[in-house]
Amino acid sequence: MSGFLSALRLGVSSVVVASALSSCAVTPPGPPPKAEHVLYEWYDDGGPGEVKVKINLNTQQAHYTRGGRDIGWSYVATGKEGHGTPSGTYRITEKLEEKYSGSYGWIEGEFGNVTNGDAKPSTKVPAGQRYMPAPMPYWQRITGYGIGMHAGVIPKPGETASHGCIRLPKEFAPVLFGVTTMGTPVTIVH
User: What residues of the chain score a pLDDT lower than 50?
Assistant: First the structure.
């Protein structure tokens, strides 16, 4: 009987070892996950001092300070060729959480499919379709002629993409909106 128990123990041990090894089996690796760009970092201490914004058109990045202390940075997307964002020194003159462009938008079909992604209000709209003005949430105007900062798509960080406005990362725009005031200085440089 003891020979039988020894054989049984050996068999059970073999099964335990075999199943432990099979759970450690390595499957062939697939392609690595695509890296996502970090679009902004925010480390505002909420302390004293005025918030200032400095936008670099060459790097397509903005840097934020409060009382001279760095409080964050973000990618931006400024005016593409033919729609350049002007350099200069400005101040925020209007703040609206919800705003739509009076100059740009798209045309969409009956089921919401975009048929023209770069339309103006004057663009002829085919029958059965409609013009949709571009949303510009967390709008912060800096010029008298329609340039401002707002939430938007940054398709390729480091590259221009807008019609002249300064697009901010969608998740970051409400954060910046919450710490700026009317009169916050905005400097745009090359």
Answer: 4-5, 7-10, 12-23, 25
Regarding pTM above 0.90, the answer is no
Q: Which CATH class is domain 36-99+136-189?
A: mainly beta
Residues 92 and 120: their CA atoms lie apart, in Å, by: 25
Please give the span between the terminal C-alpha atoms of the chain, in angstroms, as a whole number.
89
Q: For residue 30, what pLDDT is reported?
A: 76
pLDDT on residue 15? 47
Where are the chain's structural domains? Answer: 36-99+136-189
> What is the reported pLDDT for 32?
77
Asked if 70 contacts 146 with a C-beta cutoff of 8 angstroms, the reply is: no
**Helix/strand/coil percent split, the chain, to 5:** 15, 35, 50
Number of residues in the chain: 190
Contact 44, 62 (CB under 8 A): no
Q: Is 97 left (phi over 0), alpha (psi -120 to 50) or beta?
A: alpha
Grouping H, G, I as helix, E, B as strand and the rest as coil, residue 24 is: coil
| pLDDT tens-digit readout, 83-115 | 999 999 999 999 999 999 999 999 999 999 999
DSSP 182: T
The secondary structure of 58-70, three-state, reads CCCEEEEEECCEE
- Of 108, 100, 85, 54, nearest to 162 by C-alpha is 85
